[in-house]
Amino acid sequence: MEPVGEDVTSSQACGNGTPKTPDTTTLDNEHNEKNSTMIEAERERNKSILRRLTKTSLLELCEENSVGEFHLFEECQEKHCLIVKQVFRLMTDLVQKCSEIDPRFESKLFWTGSSAEGTKMWLPDEFDFLMELVVLRGNCEYDNSSVFLSKLFLKKECQKLWSKLCFTNKDYKDPTTLSPLKLKNRFSILVMDAVSLLDKNKYQNIRFDDRYYLKNTRVGINITIYWLGEKYKNMKIEIDLTVGVPLVLTEIQLSNYREHSVGKLLDNRIHVIPYMKYNVFWRPSFSLSEFQMLKNLTRKQVTLYKCLKFCRDIYDQ
Fold first, then answer.
1. Is 41 contained in some domain?
2. What global pTM score does this model have?
């Protein structure tokens, strides 16, 4: 008995009666066209939603989709606050481990970004931290050559301690200049070593993916964890940790900044972070200034800011 086969129409068959192989280029084009049509339809739908929104409904939607303020004190038992308390404990322990492994990286931890500002939308799934290298406080000078991209020169008293993270004579650069690339690489290795030494059972609602929970970013390192809670079940959380060097600007440097609108956010104390595009320069970080600015806004101004973020997210989907 011959095996039963599927009927093949003449349009699907070659001259010898065998089925044609579909043209993959045609299929890909059709698939891309369908995707483009779906994306365009989604954009039009979101635009339509925005056009129909009234002032009242927009405010209601923003409040419904705003995570709200995070609280670190133990008395607060809101679900999103339980998350930040364990995340903050994790990052505090991590920074402490880093300083134990390499005392040069003794640090002060700053919580930054929208979660710290109280403007996080949608889910409590992103946190940002700045790791200030306190050992370098008062021991670096900022080059005046540019306002937003400059070199860092070490003062004489700490040049020996940081010499391996400076440019060498072979680099054809000043050996007293702190290399953002070398410091960033050392920081990344240090964090990876420190994470491996943490007692992960200490964070009862946090799960680590043993294979892929650490990755390098342009200015620091990203840590991926998962939250195992009642409300947020197996929620993926991204934590960005950036290394920063504290500086005190001279009056001339501060006046240069104040020629730009960003200067209104600054006092004479700033942080600089690696600028990896050229592997030579450092750039200012305005995350703490932005945090302070948001905290000084009125309640209505914060609500308007959230509305703008909400509209942006809806429009970009």
1. no
2. 0.72
